[in-house]
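Q: Predict the assembly, please.
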Amino acid sequence: MTTAATGLRGPTTAADTPDARAAREPHPGGTGGARRRRRLVPYLFLAIPVGLLVLLTYVPVVNMFWYSVTDWDGLDKVKTFVGADNYREVFTDPDNVRVFWVSLYYFVGSFVQMVVALYFATILSFRIRFKNLWKGILFFPYLINGVAIGLIFLNFLRPAGGLDSTLTAVGLESLVRQWTGDPDIANVTLAGVSVWRYMGLNFVMFLGAIQSISSEVYEAAEIDGASRWHEFWFIILPSIRPIVGLSLILAISGSLSVYEIPKVMTDGGNGTETFVMRTVWMAFNRGMVGLASAMAVVLLLIVLVITWIQRLVLPDDEVDLA
Amino acid sequence: MFPQKRRRRYVSLAAIGTVLTLAAACGSGSGDEPTTPATGADAEPAGEITVLTWRTDLVEDGTFDEYVTAFKEKYPDVTNVKVEGITDYEGEVKTRMNTDNYGDVLAIPGSVTPDQLGDFFEPLGAQDELGEEYRWINDKSFEGLSYGIPVVGNVQGIVYNKKVWDAAGVTAFPTTTQEFLADLQSIKDAGIEIAPLYTNYKDSWPLTQWDGARGAVTADPDYVNKMTQTDTPWTDESDSGVIDGLLYDVVAQGLTEADPTTTNWEQSKQLLGTGKIAAMVLGSWAIPQMAAAAEAAGASADDIAYMPFPAQVDGTFHAVAGGDYNLGINVHSSNKVTARAWIDWFNHDSGFSESQVGLSPLVDGPVPAALQGFVDEVELLTMNAAPAGKESLFADIDTASGIVTTDPKYRQKIVDDARSGSRTKEQVLTDLNAAWAKGRAEVGS
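A: Predicted assembly structure:
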């Protein structure tokens, strides 16, 4: 969102300088038609992406809202209007409610993820040897496709797989578990895999924010006798608060829309079914596209509400770091 | 009757695949001009057709190329038969059926309810007339018209490793579920590497294969129709109750794999062949795949054998025989004559059913050698069609109840509960009955 704002500001300021204005009007005696045409050009350029966006995003979304108040099964030629029945069922069917609880595991996991990411980002913002190597290592998991990660961990966590062998080798047999088979820890395991994957993204976001803090601030702090901890607590953390806020929003919507990793690793078995998995199952396996659309609308609304709350709590104008 | 027969489903790619195919289906496809005038009784097969198939393995290994060559030899005017193998067949085809472009010949997805058949498929003939030539056409018939013909018939039971059972001293087919459990226990006691019975919980669709025993337990070809008439199909005596009760018991007694969330379908074939597992509940279609895997793993294909579901009525075993996927013709097809010729040729001349160790869909078709022993000892049943006007009732109740018996999810839940003990067997059956009753009330049957 912030990039879009600066992107718009750029050309406006450029146009205000006299040079730019001169460059724009090389022929002061140009006809009105040519000027109108010139004024039209940006809109023509805009028309294609906006047209695609409308065709591929807004029309399907509007359709989804329509499906969500019908009993469509995905095939039938007739769609019967059923009002808010589907929405009622999203929140009353115990099987649907259960998947919300599963999201909590990922939500808690995302806090762990942010703390770890912040820790690494802070360390790597100080002067450290092989900085880029560490950065690469930490960011790499995020670049791997989610399905591949699922398959990697499937083998790593299966009984007598990589993790169990490692634990046995270092004499910690007592910790060996059925990582996905034990219903008490299956969701923790999957949330852990998710943390492993997305930590790199958080890390890079935090690091970017930290590096944009002017070095003068640190120097001034050092003169005042601030320790590393003080630097973190009084300079770094306040400066990157908007990014932390943004991460929080991504964490909430992310924990509701977990899909790939549990899909590949357990396919929703053993109580690991997530909201999106259930939505997909509802549409394509149970054949209740109407109800599934209602679930998708609910997810959309939840994310919108959370974003709105975030904007109330963390207003935009604090983005200014320097 | 056995709608979810996805042999070669590659786990987890389902949703991604759907999106990709959607894109592909929009991009490529239906530019082909109709080369033949659409119908007409005596039009000769000619031109080009597209065939959608779920057997991606047979597309990859060239079997379908041979079929196409043979078909073109018989009908020289046919210029091309384009075969599209689809990995997530059910999901992708259902999405494509929202357009007009879903091939000329395709297997009817299990999720199409009988009353929808006419919207999407060309009627192939009157049900009673077609029934003189083909078996198992009831499933895909509606109001006296048949829309699909099965490519092969399967019997439903349990595929097992004979060597392991013999070594544990079990030589006769178990006749009751109690005996079956005891046999599995003695196999476990004799020492087996992984488990006596493998659920394939992770890949999950094999759990739907347990449904194959519906009707066989009480030898009642109307069992599924009767389910729509009762609020309590899951009792201790009913087919559903016995089947799902057995699943609960077998898991609760520790006779299945220790960690079901890490099972692997492709691997399970080898495990059975090499005797690391002793049995799996699967349709007879699985026999050739298991035999091939056994040989590839260095074991003998002769060890793979087939037994009926452990239940007898009047001292006789019963097994349900039914059609696999039914081939139908796209109602929007521009070359229905050739499409029909393909279906007839596929059933009469292709040799597909023999190669799959299945029963022929033809009324007077042969029984394959590998099933002969089984067929001698077991009485085969064909499930009756739903009565007129109630063709879609079962599917409607099934969906409304939220159980969705065609989907593995509720059996995964049974396995979960049996492992953790969070619900007893009685509670599981009671909850299923409650959901079913709710579904019936909602549908208003």
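The radius of gyration of chain A is 26 Å. Residues 32-67 of chain A form the longest helix (36 residues).
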